[in-house]
Design a protein that fits this description.
Elements lengths: L7 H28 L14 H4 L3 H9 L4 E4 L21 E4 L8 H12 L3 E5 L13 H5 L2 E7 L4 E3 L9 H5 L15 E3 L4 E5 L6 E5 L3 E9 L2 E6 L13 H10 L9 E4 L7 H8 L1 H18 L17 H14 L3 H19 L1 H5 L3 H10 L5 H7 L8 H17 L1
Length: about 400
C-alpha cells in the first residue's frame, strides 16, 4: 500500500498551530524573565557544639580573629569551691564580661572583682532582669557601686545617633564616650535597649552616662581606682544574634576598646545554672499550663458546691418510731393484722429459745405452766390468749395480745 499525502489545508492548519504554540511559549518565557529575578537566600542552620551552648560564641570568634586572647567559660572561677575547681587569675589589664544576672555572684566574688578593678581591671555587667513576680530584690554589686535598678522595665528605646572613634590614649579611652553621644558623628541611626531594665544613680558619679534621672540610665562608666566598671541595661547586643546589627557591633567594639588590646577578655556567660522551676515556668508553660487547667477543672467537677457558711437548720421530720407506727397502722388498715401478730409472736418465741430452750421446745399446757412459773405476776389466761391468734376485726384482742407479747419479750 502506498501512503496517501496529507491534504494541503490540514498541513497549513498544523503549521499555524505549531507557530502559535511557539509564540505563546516565547511570550510566557519573556514575561517570566521580565517579572522574576534569581536571588540567593541564606537559611540559618541550627547551631551545634559550643555555638549552641555559648551565647557569646560569635563575640569570642570575632575577638580571636582580631588577635585578642579570649577566655570563655560558664563560671567566674575566681575562688576555688572546696579546693576542687581550678581558679582563673585576673591580670590588671584584663576585661571581664558578666553576661548573666549579677545577683548570682557571691559576696566573696564581688569583693574579689572590685579589688581587681581597683588594680586596673575592666568589668562589664548588666542590670538584673525582672523576675516572674516583678520583685525588686537587692543587688549587692550595685549597692557597692552606688547604683539601683529601677523597679520596672522601661518601654523606651535608646537611640544610637552615631559612632565616635576611641582616642589612642588609654587614660582618655577609660573616660571616653560611646555610641549615643549628642556630639557624635553621623554614622547612622539605630535603637538599642528597647524594653530593658534601666537603673538610676544613688551617689555614683560616672565619667560617662547614657540616659537621665527621669527615665533611667542604660549605660554608665564608673572609675574605681585604676580600673573602670561599665554598667548597661542589658548585654543582649553582645550575643550571637545581637551582633548581626551594625549598631550592636559598633557598641561592642567601643565597649571593649579601652583595655582589650592589652589583656585577656574573660567572657562569663553563665555564672550558675538557672533554677529548674524557673526554667520550667519560663519555657515549658505550653505543657504545664493546659495540664494545670485540666487539674483545676477536674477538682472543680468533684468538689462540693459552694453554699452558705453555716449549714441550714434541720427540718422537722418523723422519727423512726413514728415511721414504724405509721407502717403498722397502714398494714392493719389494709387487713394484714395477722402478719403483725405473727411478727410479734415470732420475736417472742425467738428470744424464748435463747433464754429458756426447754420452755420453747414444749407446746400447749406444759409450755403454759413453765411460762406461768417464769412470769408469776402475769395471769396464765392472759399468757394463753397471747399465744393464740386473735379473731379478725377484734381490735381490742389484737392490741392486748400484741402488748402482752412485747411485755413478756422485754422481760426475758
Amino acid at each position: 500500500m502506498s501512503a496517501q499525502p496529507m491534504p494541503r489545508p490540514q498541513v497549513l492548519r498544523t503549521v499555524v498551530l505549531v507557530l502559535l504554540g511557539i509564540v505563546v511559549l516565547a511570550g510566557l518565557t519573556a514575561w517570566w524573565l521580565h517579572t522574576h529575578e534569581r536571588v540567593e537566600r541564606s537559611i540559618p542552620m541550627p547551631r551545634t557544639g559550643e555555638a549552641r551552648r555559648n551565647p557569646l560564641y560569635a563575640l569570642q570568634v570575632a575577638l580571636q580573629k582580631d588577635g585578642i586572647k579570649v577566655n570563655s567559660r560558664r563560671r567566674l572561677q575566681l575562688l576555688p569551691e572546696g579546693g576542687t575547681e581550678t581558679t582563673v587569675p585576673l591580670k590588671p589589664r584584663d576585661t571581664v564580661v558578666i553576661y548573666n544576672d549579677p545577683r548570682t555572684l557571691s559576696r566573696a566574688e564581688i569583693d574579689e572583682l572590685l579589688r581587681w578593678v581597683s588594680h586596673g581591671g575592666h568589668l562589664i555587667v548588666r542590670t538584673p532582669p525582672m523576675g516572674l513576680l516583678a520583685t525588686n530584690s537587692p543587688v549587692p554589686l550595685f549597692a557597692d557601686l552606688q547604683l539601683m535598678p529601677l523597679g520596672r522595665d522601661a518601654n523606651e528605646c535608646a537611640e544610637v545617633k552615631g559612632i565616635r572613634a576611641q582616642p589612642a590614649d588609654p587614660a582618655a579611652a577609660r573616660a571616653g564616650a560611646l555610641v549615643g553621644d549628642e556630639d557624635a558623628g553621623s554614622a547612622g541611626h539605630d535603637f538599642l535597649f528597647c524594653g530593658d531594665r534601666r537603673f538610676t544613680l544613688v551617689g555614683a558619679n560616672p565619667v560617662h552616662s547614657w540616659g537621665d534621672l527621669k527615665n533611667g540610665y542604660v549605660f554608665a562608666r564608673l572609675l574605681r581606682g585604676s580600673g573602670s566598671v561599665d554598667v548597661l541595661a542589658d548585654l543582649g547586643f553582645l550575643g550571637s544574634d545581637g551582633l548581626e546589627q551594625p549598631a550592636s557591633f559598633e557598641l561592642a567594639r567601643q565597649l571593649l576598646q579601652p583595655n582589650y588590646r592589652e589583656g585577656t577578655v574573660h567572657l562569663v556567660y553563665a555564672a550558675q545554672m538557672p533554677s529548674l522551676w524557673a526554667t520550667l515556668i519560663r519555657h515549658s508553660w505550653m505543657a504545664w499550663g493546659p495540664l494545670m487547667l485540666a487539674l483545676v477543672f477536674w477538682l472543680w467537677r468533684r468538689m462540693q458546691r459552694f453554699g452558705p457558711q453555716f449549714a441550714a437548720p434541720a427540718l422537722e421530720r418523723r422519727s423512726l418510731l413514728e415511721h414504724i407506727t405509721a407502717s403498722g397502722e397502714l398494714a392493719y388498715r389494709y387487713g394484714y393484722a395477722h402478719l403483725l401478730y405473727d411478727a410479734a409472736r415470732n420475736a417472742f418465741l425467738a428470744r424464748l429459745r435463747r433464754r429458756d430452750p426447754q420452755a420453747a421446745a414444749l407446746q400447749g399446757e406444759p409450755q403454759l405452766m413453765l411460762l406461768s412459773q417464769r412470769f408469776p405476776d402475769v395471769p396464765a389466761s392472759e399468757i394463753r390468749d397471747a399465744l393464740l391468734p386473735p379473731f379478725a376485726n377484734d381490735h381490742t384482742a389484737f392490741r392486748t395480745r400484741i402488748a402482752t407479747l412485747i411485755r413478756l419479750r422485754n422481760r426475758l
